[in-house]
Amino acid sequence: MASKKSFSTETSNRYARAIFQLAKENNELEIVEENIKEFLKVYKSNLDLQNFIKNPTETVSNQLKVISKISDAMNLKKIFKNFLSILVVKRRIFFIKKILESFINLSANQRGELSAKLISSKVLSAKELENVSSELSESIGSDISFDYTVDDNLIGGFKMQLGSLMIDTSIQNRLKKYEQIMLEK
């Protein structure tokens, strides 16, 4: 059964592969990855920047000026700065979040890392996160990096997604299961 990917996913993956290959050919993969992570952090935390980039009525020249100023302020590598400019000119800049996240996944795969999402009911210490990561890495046979968040609604336990595998030990999930059983009777 063939999976159908959306236009934005296909486009994002294509652009992510392009910057990945370019950075790799120029032996700047690690530096570009750090630039991308920094830029993504700024992008995700700045609603004005998100709105500016996603605004289809913004002119290309105006977006190029802003991207250039941001690139200079963040001291981004020339490869990444030029890549951002291409995204603006090609009117693909509104896919920036998906593109950069795809790039990060490509880089992690290149290093043999798997990425997982971990959501816990309480804040875990760095040592606890390291223990979870090392135990899972050892059992799977591959390095695992976590996208970690805390969700008070879980009451207790955690949720973890590793690829298509979802592990949900939360009390919230157990309560839902009991509710389902009670409704069925």
Average pLDDT taken over every residue = 84
- H and E string: HHHHHHEHEEEH
Strand order within the widest sheet? 2-1-3-4
Tally of extended strands? 4
Main beta-sheet strand count, sense and barrel state: 4 strands, mixed
Helical percentage: 55-70%
What is the third-level CATH name, the topology of the largest domain?
Peroxidase, domain 1
| Low-pLDDT residue intervals, each spanning 5 or more residues | none
Report what the structure shows.
This protein has helices at 7-25, 29-45, 47-54, 60-74, 78-89, 96-110, 126-140, 171-184, and strands spanning 113-120, 143-150, 158-162, 165-168. The protein is of the alpha+beta class and 185 residues long. It has 2 domains: 7-109, N-terminal domain of the delta subunit of the F1F0-ATP synthase (Peroxidase, domain 1, Orthogonal Bundle); 113-184. Strands 2-1-3-4 form a 4-stranded mixed beta sheet, sandwiched between helices. The longest helix has 19 residues, at 7-25. The model has no long low-confidence stretch (mean pLDDT 84).
Features:
single chain, 185 residues, alpha+beta, Peroxidase, domain 1, 2 domains, four-stranded mixed beta sheet, 8 helices, globular
